[in-house]
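Technical appendix A lists one of the benchmark inputs used to test multi-chain prediction within the project. The record comprises two sequence entries:
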Amino acid sequence: MKDFSVNGFQFVGIHCGIKKSGKPDIGLIVAKKPVPCAGVFTTNQIVAAPVVQSRNKLARSAQAQAVVINSGNANACTGKQGEQDARQMAVWTASAIDCSPDDVQVCSTGVIGAPLPMAVIHEGINTAARSLSDESLPDFAEAIRTTDTFAKVRSAHITVGDRVFKVAGASKGAGMIHPNMATMLGVMVTDAPIQGSEIGDMWRRICAHTFNAITIDGDTSTNDTALFMASGAAGGTYLKGTDLADFEAQLLTFTAELAKDIVRDAEGGTKVVEIRVCGALDIHEAKLAANTIALSPLVKTAIHGEDPNWGRIIAAAGRSGAKLDPNALNLRFNDVNLYREGEWLGTDSEKNASQVMAQPEYIITLNLGVGQASHGVYTCDFSADYIRINADYRS
Amino acid sequence: MKDFSVNGFQFVGIHCGIKKSGKPDIGLIVAKKPVPCAGVFTTNQIVAAPVVQSRNKLARSAQAQAVVINSGNANACTGKQGEQDARQMAVWTASAIDCSPDDVQVCSTGVIGAPLPMAVIHEGINTAARSLSDESLPDFAEAIRTTDTFAKVRSAHITVGDRVFKVAGASKGAGMIHPNMATMLGVMVTDAPIQGSEIGDMWRRICAHTFNAITIDGDTSTNDTALFMASGAAGGTYLKGTDLADFEAQLLTFTAELAKDIVRDAEGGTKVVEIRVCGALDIHEAKLAANTIALSPLVKTAIHGEDPNWGRIIAAAGRSGAKLDPNALNLRFNDVNLYREGEWLGTDSEKNASQVMAQPEYIITLNLGVGQASHGVYTCDFSADYIRINADYRS
């Protein structure tokens, strides 16, 4: 059996009564003491109560001792009552594990507009806190699911010089899967010693290329949250300099897989495609072009139809606002060139590109031909199932 | 029979041999002399050869005597040969009707990457020029179709004080209908006397609320063009001041219907919905919010499912970048309030909104609660047919 333990953390996921199905709906991650913690939250102006409070806590101090997450109810658009309920969840969790409510991160995901069933949540937190164990991250991953078709949980070793650390995490969501104010959640933990002064910037850089680089339908939610906690229980001095950079690079690769799991689970999606834009003037323009291509319904339907429709891709780049040189554009599907120096390479290149597109995962690379900046995003296709699922979601 | 004639103009549309189907594929609009003309063109950086040339001509002098449009081939991504071919179309048209090539606007729409069949186009222009007539605008509208399911042609009277003018026009496109570097085209003509110095700004303002306010899938093409010509053949002094404003308001209403015809024809679309954002800080933010809502796949699938999913609409506004006050938001489907001062009005309001959504055309109004600016855009729903049509387009 795969080992999901990470020194310094315990996990739990149980059913407390929010979901009518009887499936797990509340989970905890608890550290032995307050540890460095970083969070990246939704940029939507409509923000759920737990997000406002969790964000404020990390802004005051980059640490946490516990994460409590309920599924089945997003506590969004719930007004003053929602704010009070989110505070209460932190107070109950703090009391159950004996820490300060300021060190409890709270997340909620599920339906919006309805008040949280606070009585069952109170009992759920108390029961969960008594069932914490080193090995239960997979149970936690189950407890944060809403309509995900599989629980998303991974662990890995990160080697820096002669030191070996553990990293593990869980994610859930998004987009197609939870169309109604969908929530993307991700929580990573490590036993590596990372200073509170370093963890925030590192996590923001990692999220830019992982949880913030997955685009399913462009709709962000009121509840999106990605957390990273470092217990330091592996011992030794704080990671710094090139060691820290080495750790960050490996954490990025690990986190990217948990982020891609969300795209892999996109209901109605059958492909995971990285849209990689290079040769852009700056990183902002690279992101703009990559996101415009990744979100174009015409591109996403062409991906579904395995149609190497280069016209749709370059037209999307052309309207994105990113500067490009029409006579220097290069377009590649994996290693198949389709368009070079602004000229289409003919029907043979399309046939070869079609073979790439028959694969479940591949990379489309577009060189804008005007600079050195690059950015990649992960997207999926649009299938008829996407429409069916999202048109009928609440009926 | 409806009268599509406009004093000072003649029209024609015939088959010359570009389309294998034998359907009309080349059309002309010809004025008796050079007349004031305005154009609004694609903002895509990937621009077809005819657009570059037509745009340059109108930048030098706000006049034209003829418009020549071929369908079946977009003359896009065709390099130097394409530039030469677009110039040649203007030269042949000028020669056939005896004017300067500088006064000929050229548009092309259809497949990309392939060279124009210039021999049949040469003969087609000459044949067409011999068949011009006052009543043939409907033939012209037929000749600019690609996969439109109906020809889009309209005419109306515009009354300013005791003066009555004619206006007529044709449009074609776009988005879902012509996914492969789709083209939106619109050409309006009037016999009203409008000065060259006024026509450009007026046409840009009108297009902002008509041809540039229709969003099907957010993908703009290399060939989009909207032209407006004023022969002045109705006689009298140039329209100015409040008379001109009065004319503009009525032309806007007329043009909006031809623009909405494009949305009505969206393949896979079953609804035409105006997304009207008000209470925005400024017009830029009103547009940003309206377009974000109108293009959200989650909103478009909810429209298809007739599901009054207010969460998706306010979440889309929340991520748009336009400033809003979550506690002052108001949301209305026609005259049914669904969300007021930041609070959901309950399941009864959703039932009433569902009845509005059962109609083929309706208005969704969202008040952002922070200012006075407003903007409306026309969108359609996403159906499973949209995916089918666009995934299989070229196979």
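Residues 176-181 of chain A have pLDDT under 50 and may be disordered. DSSP finds eleven helices and 15 strands in chain A. Comparable benchmark entries are summarised in Table A2.
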